[in-house]
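name: query_chain
kind: protein
chains: 1
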Amino acid sequence: MKLEIQVTEDTLIPRADTEILVEEVLSIVKGRKNLLELCTGTGAIGIALAKYGDFEKVTMTDISKEALQIAKKNIEELLDEGKKQRISLLESDLFENIEDQYDIIVANPPYIKADEIQNYELKYEPQLALDGGEDGLKYYRQIIEKAHSYLTKEGILVLEIGYDQAEEVKTIIEETRKYKSPRVKKDLSQNDRVILTQTL
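structure:
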């Protein structure tokens, strides 16, 4: 998204595939003013959406104090004063410290299976940002279970997913019975990458 993002050993390095999530959210912004990003890390997603989208309020959260410090630095470097005023940073374990309702919730949570993390080159990146539990779906279950309570009527949930997780995440959404039928978006390599759904 033409943004030079600062990273440290406390954050995941942003991947090009995540641009698909940002572009998809920007395509559905119209009339939706408040956005919540969970698991913000460097702030790459929230900053891109604040910069290019017409949001009145963007709340970016993470469980990691250190990650939020980097996100704050990136906000200062990459956004003009007007856009900065619209952003709030919040330390929160998913929805733990969230009270408001939002038109859109986005997240790129950790989604690698715990026993597969050793297969990844992790010289600098924190395991916390990748470990999705035994089956890689731990955080999807938690987010999907609660997100509808923090979304406005017909609010939208947008999640980045692993290339082989679309069917499992769709099943989690459908079994919750709180959302409309989910839609999957592929990345430039034609792998499933983003899943979107809407509250009933």
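note: The CA atoms of residues 103 and 155 lie 5 Å apart.
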